Amino acid sequence: MSRPNLSYLKNLILAVVGLPCGVITGVTGLSCAPALQPALRWLIGIQGSSLNGVILVMVSFVSWTGLLSFSQSGDIQWANGFCITIGTFGGTVLVGKLIQRSPIYFVRARAAWSFIPLACALLMISVSTGHIARDIPAEPLLPTTGRLLPLLWSLAIGVGVGFIGYAGELGSILVIPALYFLLGRSILQSEGTALYILVLASLPAALVHAIRRTLNTDAAFALSIGGVFGSLFGAHLAVKELPDSTTTFVCGGTLALFSLISLFQRPEVSQDRNNEAV
Prior knowledge:
By secondary structure, the chain is mostly helical. It is 76% helix and 0% strand. It has helices at residues 6-28, 33-44, 48-72, 78-101, 103-108, 110-128, 148-168, 175-182, 187-212, 217-241, 244-264. The chain starts with 5 loop residues before the first helix and ends in a 14-residue tail after the last helix.
């Protein structure tokens, strides 16, 4: 009697795991990479570049799927998103050079970076529950008169996101609170723009993993299948069903959860930081 092929069971489990991750990304516009990294290490035992490649492929497909729903409702700031993406690459290069000069400082300060998105998360939850005046996001904290100034601020936000993302691995999830509070965008505009940035950032990195053959294609495909269906459902909820206050609360709660996961997670030693999961 032949032994059962456990690869089918593994792929089924990955598809099931991808489904709620897709729903979360569709509703909140946040990448599930902070939660997926420890989960996939435990489920299928992959590490390093292979792990990052699987997550990047899943994030690319899930973000693209959610982007379709948000684009149909006009909730994407295309120019701001592109400028933030460009700034992110600049911030990554900047902090990479600083880490080479003082690596011990950034390793010791890694936990501190997690408190920045955690503080943003608590602020979003306070706004959604009415503990802070609801009209604060409508009044941007930064001057945004004219067309050029918001783009310049977007570049600066991108540099900060890239800096924190490289040093603390949570930079990408700061895009939504930055757009929401600093530039005064609505929660749906912030989430839709964040999905656009995820597509721009994750797709090229996923292609690099595919070219280098450091990609577990079976795991990436199975995870993405569940994620795509979940993202369709989640984006529909965010755009059509949920009130803004509920969406803001869910986004803030997810942001807080990811911050806590990163805070208590031991960093993985990697030789290549250039292709970290988004």
